[in-house]
Specification:
Blueprint: H1 4-12, E1 26-32, E2 36-41, E3 54-58, H2 63-71, E4 77-78, H3 83-91, E5 95-109, H4 121-130, H5 133-141, E6 146-147, H6 168-177, E7 184-191, H7 199-211, E8 213-220, H8 222-232, E9 237-243, H9 248-256, H10 271-280, H11 286-302, E10 307-318, E11 322-323, E12 340-341
Parallel strand pairs: 7-8, 7-9
Antiparallel strand pairs: 1-2, 2-3, 4-10, 5-9, 5-10, 6-10, 11-12
Helix pairs in contact: 4-6, 10-11
Length: 343
Amino acid sequence: MIHSQNCSSVKQKGGGAKDIVGTGPFILEEFQRDVILTWVRNDNYWGGTPYLERIEVTYIPESVTAKAMMVAGEADMWMSPTMLDLVELEEAGFTRISGWGGIQWHLLPNADDPNSIWSNKKLREAVEYAIDKQALCDALGYGFYEPLFTISPQGDWGGDRQFRNYDPEKAKQLLAEAGYPDGLEITLLAQTQSSGRNDVAEAVKGYLDAVGFKVNLDIADTGRYSAAIYADGFEDLALAMSGNDQDYLVSAQRWWGPQPRLDLQGYECTPELAAIFEKSLKTNDRNEQKKLTEEIVYYIAEEALVIPLYNNPTSVIHNGKVHTTYLQQGLTRFDYANTWLEK
């Protein structure tokens, strides 16, 4: 929302695309893309004067450097530590905070293209049977990752049922039945991590190669990866994320519905599925909402439209002096006005 008296000047500067207009507790002081974001206290904030004088968000692409800054006392909080760094810092006396919100990671097959090999359900099923999700979580999650058996995390609506277990022989059988008894060469798209690699993609490749797939990894930078996932599409498989909300019906609508917040390429919301989504919007009865959410989640699982891998409950690490309610309301809401720091 832009005040009418300021609207014309904002338009002259580019329509507000790069000019922050708001009534929040902090005012933007400096922004350098991929370098730093600095906020200073808004003393005229309508909700009362914030506790902090300023907030500096520094972009550190290398996890080794970020961890060293935490250990040296050069940073108060690390928002995206690796699982190993999270474990090691907590063991060293740092404070971990977490909440119910998380990131769910899946394999997206290019199934919405009728001319794609991935329109064959048996091929999609073969991929899921090939992957030992619990072993993947144990190896890479350091006790934090949870296996995903549907798009919904365990404990959320629709997250209670397992459709396919780890069965490499079944995967080989389905691959042959899909028309590839001698194997199939495919490409797996994934986003580069701070190491320049993607350990999940490498693990998935190992499982798929073992049953007859021949996986070529395409580890893309953030720009190319995002363009492929949300706009341009990809050839075979892509490692992609979704999120969860206070109930999974909201999440399903945002990520997998006929009018999603982000248009994940490769995924198809079929007419049958869209009809269930439409029905779910027309009831305010919680039991009916739960039932319809389960129908949505189970449909996607049964058709293997998405191949769920694991849930990563969000955690951040701080020096023990940061007082915040972050993650209590999900991972996109940060109450900066009421956050404070011990001296």
